[in-house]
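Renewal narrative, Specific Aim 1. Our central claim is that a sequence can be written position by position from structural information alone. The example that follows is taken directly from our test logs and has not been curated for this report. It begins with the structure tokens describing the chain, in the order in which they were read.
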């Protein structure tokens, strides 16, 4: 009888250890997923304060015409991204994509600095005349709808 109890206890301990190990693995996977998750925000959302201040995120919209300014070092660029409702200043150090142009769609990944300027770590430009990143297209569409409702009193 004692031998059966020991066998039963061994099985219970083995099951408990397996459940704990599974819980630890699940927690590690979820933590890694959460830390690598990058959310998208429009300039309007960033200006309203909806974007995180303590982690990276993406912004998208159009590069405002006449806003691109390059520094003498040749690799630092300053420009503004707009969703036609709000505009956000961006600083990027690195080589801009060949298709990066004023008035065209762009998505940038980075963080806001203490001055409210978006410091981009990566800039992505559209790849042909008809393409705009889905997030940027949606943000522009929502901003245009919001402007129409503000302009037209119904």
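The sequence written for that structure reads:
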């Amino acid at each position: 009888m004692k031998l059966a109890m020991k066998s039963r206890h061994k099985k219970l301990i083995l099951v408990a250890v397996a459940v704990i190990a599974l819980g630890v693995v699940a927690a590690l996977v979820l933590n890694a997923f959460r830390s690598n998750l990058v959310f998208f925000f429009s300039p309007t959302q960033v200006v309203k304060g909806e974007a995180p201040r303590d982690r990276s995120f993406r912004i998208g919209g159009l590069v405002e015409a006449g806003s691109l300014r390059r520094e003498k070092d040749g690799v630092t660029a300053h420009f503004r991204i707009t969703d036609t409702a709000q505009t956000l200043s961006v600083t990027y150090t690195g080589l801009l994509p060949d298709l990066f142009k004023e008035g065209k769609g762009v998505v940038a990944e980075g963080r806001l600095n203490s001055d409210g300027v978006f410091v981009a770590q990566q800039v992505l430009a559209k790849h042909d005349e008809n393409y705009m990143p889905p997030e940027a297209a949606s943000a522009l569409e929502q901003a245009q709808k919001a402007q129409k409702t503000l302009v037209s009193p119904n």
